[in-house]
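Sequence only, no structure available. Ideas?
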Amino acid sequence: MPEPEHGFAAVVIVAAGSGTRFGAPDKVLLPLNGQPVLAHALDSAEAAATVRDAVVVVGDHTRVAVETLIGAGPWTKVRRVVVGGARRQDSVVRGAAAVAGDVSIVVVHDGARPLAPASLFDACARAAWERGAAIAAVPVADTLKRVAGDRIAATVSRDGLWAAQTPQAFRRDVLARAFAFGDRDPAGVTDEAALVEALGEPVFVVEGRFDNLKITRQDDLALAHALLQLRDRRP
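Reply:
I predicted one. Tokens follow.
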């Protein structure tokens, strides 16, 4: 693989969640169109032109199964499988620490987002090379309500509001400083972009896809199945 102009990128695929909202601790191993949910994310990372390496972060409860899956699969870019931490950011820190030292860009992706295409990994990585930090996101389409209990407190303008997705890509030095800053927050954050924002560093948006859903609840798995079938039927 020739070295790109700005260096290599590595993907940290985070698959260490407990699956509480879904109701299954191994949701990334559940079948989706003939292969596990996680396999679809691995396929996209494998196909991304900007990506040289991949690290998969798992929970103790899925480590053996994921190692078996990867060992039997076609994913030549996977270098390490590591066990995550208590918080999401702890898991990402451990995954990033396992990335080779000559990697310039770290791309973070949710293992439970099986529909992100390779082109979205490439777009985020290239934007991070140029600008420091970039995430996939889509403009909010729904009317938003702030609710207290079961009562609407206010309608929130959706102007300028975007829903964050993954992949999220960062120059390695930017992400390292964000991790150091995040150690001061015991509660943690829900994505790495929030840590970079807290540093005062700009984070740029790459337009994502509305079908790049995260498998959070059981209905999401059925929806992902339908979307993949529709995608497969398109010319």
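Helices lie at 37-47, 63-72, 88-97, 118-131, 172-182, 192-198, 218-233.
Hope that gets you unstuck.
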